[in-house]
Each structure stands twice: as C-alpha cells, then as structure tokens.
Amino acid sequence: MNLNKSKSPPFVHKNARIAHKLVYFLIVGSQIGVGVLGFVRYIAKYVRQDSWIIVILGGLSIHIILWMMFKILNKHGGDLFNIHHQFFGKWLSLPLSSLFIFYYLVTGIVILRTYIEAVQNWMFPGIPIWTLSFFFVALTYYIVGKGFRVVTGIAYFCFVLTIWMTFTHYFPIRYGHFINLLPVLDFGLKDYFQAFKVMVLSFLGIEYLFAYYPYLENPKKAQKWAHIGAATTTGIYMLTTLSTLMYFSPKQLQGLTWPTLQEWKIVTLPILERFEYVGIAFFAIVVLINLAIALWTSSRGINRIFDIKQRIAIIPLSILLFATPVFFTTRFKVDELNNIIGKFGFYLLYAYIPLLFIISLLKKGEKT
Amino acid sequence: MRFFNTGKSIKSNPLAQENENKALDQNILWQEIGMSDWISGFIESLIDQERFNKEVLCFIQKNQSLKCKELYEQLPFSNKHYKKDPDKQTINSMVLQGCVALKKRSSKEMIFVHVEKAPNLRPISVPEVEFSVIGPKEAFNENLETNLVLIQKRLPTSALQIEFIEIGQRTKTKVAILYLKDIANETNVKTLKERLAGIDYDHILDSSYLIQMIEDNKMSLFPQLIDSERPDRIAASLIEGKVAFLTQGSPHGVYGPVSIVEFFAAFDDYFVTWHISSLFRIMRMFAVLFSIFATPLYVSVITYHPELIPDDLLSTLTTSRTDIPFPPVLEALFLELTIELLREAGARLPTKVGQTIGIVGGIVIGTASVQAGLTSNVLLIIVALSALASFTTPVYRMSNAIRIVRFPMIILSQFWGLLSMTLGLMFIITHLLGLTSLNRPYLAPIYPPRLSDWKDSFVRLPFYVQKNRPDQLKVQEKKKISWWKKRDIDEFE
To answer: What is the superkingdom listed in this entry's lineage (chain A) (predicted)?
Structure first.
C-alpha cells in the first residue's frame, strides 16, 4: 500500500481516455436518476406552483459549480484526490478523500434502493430486495470491470435508449391546465430556499467529474459539453416539473409518491395500453449508469489513495452496494437516506466546492 | 526448407521442424534416369508425371554431360533450387511439396524442380451463402492461388501487398495476408500478422479455425471478424483499408477490423440503388431486434404485464391461450426448440430432402401443436417470424449468434418480465461495448459515436456522399473520391 500515490497526478493510458464530447452523456447520465420520477413533490411541498423557478435556479447554480470545478481541475491538473493532496497534505487529505469515496458509494446505494422501492410499489410488490439488488450489482460489476470506456458507453446508450421518454410529457401537458402555474412568485424567500435545498439532491452527479476528469482526452474542450449536459438535465427537469404541476393540483400532488409514474398512467398508444410498466423497466438503464459511475468512481478513489488495484477494489465495494439496500426495509428509511445524502450533497456542492475554489485561487497551479 | 509457389522461402516453425517425420523418405521414389548417371526422387502422387517426362527428363537426356551446378543454371524452370549438400530433412520437405529431386550419382549436390501436379479442384462457382441477384457471381474455391488471382484481378495495383505465412505444425497451411500498403493502417496489419504468427497449433483446416484463434475475445458469442466467399467483398474491404487473409484449402476469405453493423450489410447492397439498400438494411436491423426480443416480450407481457395489451388485442390473445396447459415460458421454449430442430435437420440433410423436411415439419408440427392445444397460434406466428427474421442476417456466423442470444432472453423474461429483459439488454450492450475487432471498437459507428461513418452503416447513402473511408479504421489515406462537384441551377458544362 502506497499512501502517497495520490501525490502525483494520475497517469491514464491514451487508449483508456474518452473523447471530450462524451462527457455530455456522463454528466446527463449521472445527474438524472430515479429522482426524476418523484422530485417535483418535494419541491412543491414548499413552493407549489413556483417549483419551476427553483428548477431554473438550481440549474443555473449547477453551471456555476461546474465552472468552478473545471477551474480547479484545469489549474491543478489531475483529479480530486491529487488536489486534496496538494491542498491539505498527506494526512489531512486521507480522511477527506475517503469521505468522498464513501459518498460516491452511498449515492449508488441511494439510487439503487430508491429504484427498488419504486419497483416494489408499482410492479412487483413481493419482490425481495436482495434479488433485484443482486442482479443490478452483478451487472454493474460487469460494466465497471470492463473499464471507463464501457462506463461511458453505457452512459451514451442510457441517453439514447431513454431520452424518448421525455416525450411522454406530451400527454399530461395536453390534459393539464396552464392555470395551475399561476400565480407566479407567491412565496417567501425562506420557502424558496427550503425548496432549493431539496432540489439539490436531483442535481447531484456532477461531482463525479472530480474523479474521471483525467480520463477526458481534451479537458478544456470538454467543459463546453459538460455545461451543455447540465443544461440538458435542467431542461428535462423543467419539462417534468411543468407537466406535473399542470396535470396535478397542488393538494393532489402531495398525496403522490411518484408523480411521474402517475402521469405515465394516461399515456396510451395504439399498441400499448399502460405505459408505466415500460417506463419503470426502462428506468433500470438510468439506474444502471448511476450505479456504474458510483462504483467506478469509488473504486477509482481507493485505487488512487490506497494504491489497491481497481479490479480488487470493486469486489468489496460491490458487495457493499449489494448488501446495504437490504437493510433499508421501509419507505421511511429510504426517505431518510435520501434526505441525508441530499443534505450532504448540498453542502458538498455549495460549500465545499466553493471552498476548494477559493483555496485554488490562492494556491499556485502545478503544471503537469 | 519450404517454399511457396512463388519461390519465396518460408521460415519454418522450429517445433514443426523437430516433429518432422524423418523416416518418411521411404515414400520417395528414387529412379534412375535412363542412360545416364542422374537419379531422380519424387512422390508419384504429388508431381505431374507428364510434365516431368517431357520437360525435365528430356532436358537431362540432352545435356547428360553437364555438371550439377551447370545443369541447374540451364534448366528452363523458374521455380528451382540448388542445394550443395542437403540433409535428409530438407530433401523430405522439398519432395513433399511436389518437387523432383535431381542428383548425380557421384556427387552430393542436388537440384529441386517444382513440377507439382495442378490440383484437381472445384471450378469457380456461384456464391451460395452470399448469393446476389445482381453483380458478379464468382466465389472462392479451395485453392489459394486461384483465390489470390480472383482478388488480384480486381485490384491491379502495386499497392496490394500479399504476404505468406505457414501455420499449423502438421498441415503446414499456407495463409496469405492481404492489404493495400498506401491505405491500410499499419497497426491493424501488424496486429493481424502478429496474431497469425503467434498461432501454434497442429492442424489448420479452414479459415474458420484461424478466426476462432485470433479473435479478440474468444469467449464471446459474437463473431469479431467477417468471412466471405465473395472475392469482390474481400476486394472492397481491402480498398476500405481493412486487412484480409486467405487460407489454403478454405473457400472463405476473412477480413477485419469490422464493426457490428457490417454484419448486417449484404454485399448486394452496393449493387442496387441506395434507397433500396438503405431500406433493406434498416429492415434487417429491425429483423434482428425482432428476432431477439419478440418471443421474450411475449413471454414477459403474458406472464407479468397483461395490462400493457390494448383491449382489442387482449381478446385475441386470450382466446388463443385459453386452453394452453403450460406457462408461456415453457410454451415459447418448446416452439423455439422445435424451430431450431427443424433448422438443424434441414441443414444436415441434402438440399432437396432438407427443403421437404422444412416445409412438412413446419406446417405439420406447427398446425398439429396448435390443434392439440399445446401452443397458441399467436406465439406460433411470433416464433416463426423471429426465426425467419434471424435468417435475414447476411453473415452466417452472426445469424447463429442471434439465434442463440434469444434463449437466455426468454428465460430471463420469466424472472421479472420487462425489468429483467431490460437488464438482459443492458448485459448484451455492455458485452458488445467491451468487444474489439483487431483492437478497434466493435460497436464503432454507434459508440464511439462517429456520425460520418453512419453513411455506410445502418443506411447506405449514394456513393458520392461517401467521400471518406471509415474513421474507425484510422486509414492512411482518407479520401475515397474527389471528382464530385455539385452543379448549380442552370449551370452546364
């Protein structure tokens, strides 16, 4: 074990790198998770018809954070673990980086458990948690074992195979009422702030960039595509929010756990009577890419800090990923887990990254 | 010491040399040449007796007095070799190639002259696997020289490089590697050459042996190199910048690197207009998807999600399934296996009997099983259609792979319906993403997304649009054409 490995910037073979444009799919793939099926309810709890404003604000703030991240990474090179080492030294960087690894893994657990919750509620009520979790983790293990290019490929396919689902919002918007969006700006600042805090959970995902940045072929050019990716996410959330707000009345909305799934109920096609089953099944792809990125980044972190081979590191991590969801047996616990990770993510994005940014402004960049 | 017909020498595998049977010279027939002190040695079945008599013997008869070296110099043959003091092993291997060994009784010097019998071969015939309605109707046969000629005729350019190597300790199969020097990527050529040279196996009887030995992922179900019996297809792939090889004794040329979409492109597509060929290609892609997912979809929808079916269709489905005693998954597996059996039986039997079996079996078993109430007729239609769809894939290896993929998908769909089917789909995609063909990505124009390569993948756009060679191959010379200039309105030459 060589604890000093993160001192040097990572070396990535040119065959393992990905074209800079593909960062778009990684950003979209890692940001959009199961949250999109139900996040509107949480924001609408505080600001009701003004939820869409929060989505826009959240999206804009993400752009600022993303910009900061690229500034830090471009200046100091390498990845987060290397930057921690540069900023805080060996012994302080160790717990910090470990915390990040833990966080990356937990994001995976959260999304997996939340998805299983949705499956249990909508498709197979009696399904044991561990069976689904086993299949998902096995597949994730297979993906991550094939390397980062394949992870990116899955992100790409995830985008291609699921982007058409945004068009299903046509149905609720057609049957919805525009009047539901009025009046605009009807709440106090405190409510907006509360809603904003809740919203952040859905926007999480850009922080993985800290780990895979060295894998980009041309990081400076990638920034543009990352921003376009973040904008796409905001667009998709915006559409979801608008359709949900228009279709449901605020009171009705609070009674639903998965508003988007509820909306899908009215989607009818000549060859398809009920869409939500197809929708949930296809969401497995979205879950899969989130899991893959989470497992990849956390194992990569272990590789970078403790100098353990990534192929070995993914074994205990996947066992954790497989076993942990089993312990969150009730809806309440799942919600709790989501809240905790949401709060952590909020402080990570809006406190820790700006802090790193300020330190990086003060520090001299290391040329690599 | 071994030589190709062109006269180039072959570096022998050291192991093979060791294993060479040293007692074999009993097969060599040593004869005196009348009225002289020359003797000749050969294996009767390998050489052309008539040519030997007429050309070699007559020449020696006339020039009896010449010394060995002088005779060698004067012999009117291009493919001849002179050895001062050959050991037994050399003599053996030379004679086994179809040479005649000539020697003066008094000296140890030897001359070897190639007078091998022209092998009695199948004539060049019409392609059977990759038949096309329009276009050339030549197919490779089993002779390497003939096959090379078929390609060289199409590519009369000095850039065409042909390199020979010999693989297989015992069969000593000659393999010709072909590429265009000014186009093909050197790394690709090197990869193929190294992989072929690295094979150490005792027998190579067909190019499919080699394909399986040099594929990137040998555990994969999906073929990673294309074999074709059409010389025009091989020539076209060489021009694209690919590397090909031909094997002695095999009527199939092999080329790579390939991407998965090429397996769904018939060479026919280039002979018809681009609209039609594009339509066919898209149809084939849908056929593949249908063939893999139709039956699993039926199983999962009937088993778990009957809510998905629209009202009108539901009544049709329920009436067809009311009396079926089995769960959908068993029903589907039963029918799929029946179809596979029919196909296998048809493939093993001679053509005419095979057709009869197919028709009789298909109609009789299908109708009977529906009437007996073992299967629903809706499923029968689906299974028959998906079997039919799997045969539209032009490359035989690929259509095999697709037929096999269906079975795990059916079993998987029994788990949690659509959900496990999605997971299965993602497993296939992950597997394909990880595959490479001669170290180039297998899913190439799809991922990594290279939009410029899409012109000749799912669709085939007109020739003038395809200005460049595919990005995937990283060729040396990208441009394919430069003559096309679009005419302005009312502008004439």
So the answer is: Bacteria
Tens digit of pLDDT for each residue in B54-89?
888 888 888 777 787 888 888 887 778 888 877 777
* ipTM of the complex in this document: 0.94
Whether residue B306 lies within 8 A of chain A, CB to CB, comes out as no
For residues A184 and A50, the answer to whether their CB atoms sit within 8 Å is yes
Going along chain A, which residue ranges are E strands? none
Distance from CA of B309 to the nearest CA of A (A): 6
Contacts of A291 in chain B (CB under 8 A): none
- In whole angstroms, give the CA distance from residue B32 to residue B105: 9
**CA distances, A13 to each of A215, A294, A298, A343 (Å):** 9, 21, 20, 36
Cα separation, B486 vs B493, in Å, equals 12
Contacts of A142 in chain B (CB under 8 A): 427, 430
Q: Which of B304, B311, B426 sits opposite A139 (nearest CB)?
A: B426
Domain A5-362 has CATH 1.20.1740.10: yes
B423, B411 Cβ separation under 8 angstroms? no
Q: Mind telling me how many Å the CA of B449 is from chain A's nearest CA?
A: 9
d(CA B40, CA A113): 84
Answer whether A266 touches B (CB < 8 Å). no
- Hey, what amino acid is at A34? V
B307 and A277 within 8 Å at the Cβ level: the answer is yes
CA distance to B267, B270, B279, B392, B463, per residue, from B460 (Å): 11, 8, 9, 17, 8
Instruction: Determine the residue of chain A that is closest to B443 in CA distance.
Output: A153
Give the separation between CA B246 and CA B253, rounded to whole angstroms: 5
For B85-95, write each residue's pLDDT tens digit.
Answer: 777 777 877 88
Span A86-90, average pLDDT: 87
- Please tell me the pTM assigned to this model: 0.91
Tokens 């009993």 correspond to what residue?
B26
User: Would the pLDDT of A102 be above 90?
Assistant: yes
Q: Does A22 contact B at CB distance below 8 Å?
A: yes
Q: Which SS3 state, helix, strand or coil, does residue A255 take? A: coil
Residues 6+ apart with CB under 8 A from B344: none
Residues on chain B touching A153 (C-beta within 8 angstroms): 429-430, 433, 443, 447-448
> Nearest residue of B to residue A158 by CA position?
B426
Question: CA distances (Å), A3 to each of A10, A85, B167, in order?
Answer: 14, 10, 49
Contact yes or no for A119/A280 (Cβ under 8 A): yes
pLDDT at A27: 94
Judged by CB atoms closer than 8 Å, whether chains meet at A124 and B434 is answered as: no
Of the partner residues B308, B313, B430, the one whose CB lies closest to the CB of residue A143: B430
Distance CA B259, CA A119 (A): 36
Q: Where are the domains of chain A?
A: 5-362
Burial B265-292 (b: 16+ CB within 10 A, else e): bbbbbbebebeebbebbeebbebbebbb
CA of B212 vs chain A CAs: smallest distance (Å): 22
A116 touches chain B (CB under 8 A): no
Tell me how far apart the alpha carbons of residues B20 and B413 are, in angstroms, rounded to a whole number.
55
A24 vs A89, higher pLDDT: A24
Q: Which residues of A touch B413 (CB under 8 A)?
A: none
pLDDT of A258-296, one tens digit each? Answer: 888 888 888 888 888 888 899 999 999 999 999 999 999
Give CA–CA dist A60/A239, Å, rounded: 16
Compute the distance between CA of residue A113 and CA of residue B21 in angstroms, rounded to an integer: 68
Distance CA B457, CA B445 (A): 8
Q: Report the gap between the CA of B308 and the closest CA in chain A (Å).
A: 5
Whether B422 contacts chain A with CB within 8 A: yes
